[in-house]
Amino acid sequence: KDVSLNLNGSHFQVGVLMETPFVIKDEANCTGTPCYRGYCVDLIARLARDLHFTYNLVESDDGKWGGYDNKTDTWDGLVKMLIDKKIDIAAVHLSINSLRERYIDFTVPFMDAG
Length: 114
Prior knowledge:
Number of strands: 7
Low-confidence stretches: none
Structural class: alpha/beta
Number of helices: 3
């Protein structure tokens, strides 16, 4: 049975954070808006092509992955941006932990780090 997903017409804000080789800012080969390259950038581009959606890459507001502050009961970084719906997807090498899993959904990991 052929099951396919078509996101035609969907547009996503995709959060990124610079970390070689996953996301690398490549302004030297770009004019206008910042350009990026790397594994996560290639992955999103391939998904967009195969699933027929468009996207913008958006850098983390504060340059952080997403940490939780027990005192203020708040998140920062890309996790906060996901919770606040500033981005739809985070295309980064973000470690999965039980606390983050309570607030955001993860895909199957694409690598095992340790």
